[in-house]
Amino acid sequence: MPALSMFFGIIIYMYHELGGKHNTPHIHAEYQVYEAVISLDGELIEGELPRKKLRLVVAWIEIHADELAANWKLLSNGEAPFKIQPLQ
Q1: Higher model confidence: residue 21 or residue 76?
Q2: Which of 2, 13, 47, 50 satisfies CB 3.0 to 4.6 Å to 36 for a cystine?
Q3: What Rg, from alpha-carbon coordinates, does the chain have?
Q4: 87 is a domain residue
């Protein structure tokens, strides 16, 4: 799945689950050897990121909440998501 956004070495993904739907809307964030799943409410679901990077991701989620919700809906309908602006 292509990345939704990339900033400060963090790559953000949102996946479509084949054959079913995820329960909680969320993103996947990767930074170096770290991986985390974070809800669209900014809660860490699983994995880990360095504290400063996690704060950046949560800030990005807050700024782009509407776009993330729209992407979640697109993926739930089997459509492709769109790119979202990175933090600058």
Answers
A1: 76
A2: 47
A3: 12
A4: no
Structure tokens, 66: 């509407």
Residue 4 near residue 84, CB atoms below 8 Å: yes
Question: Sheet holding 44-47: strands in order across?
Answer: 5-7, 10-13, 26-31, 34-39, 44-47
Return d(Cα 67, Cα 32) in angstroms, integer: 25
Q: What is the pTM of this model?
A: 0.91
Is residue 29 one of the residues assigned to a domain?
yes
Q: Tokens 């860490």 label which residue?
A: 44
Task: Residue 19: give the domain boundaries.
Answer: 5-76
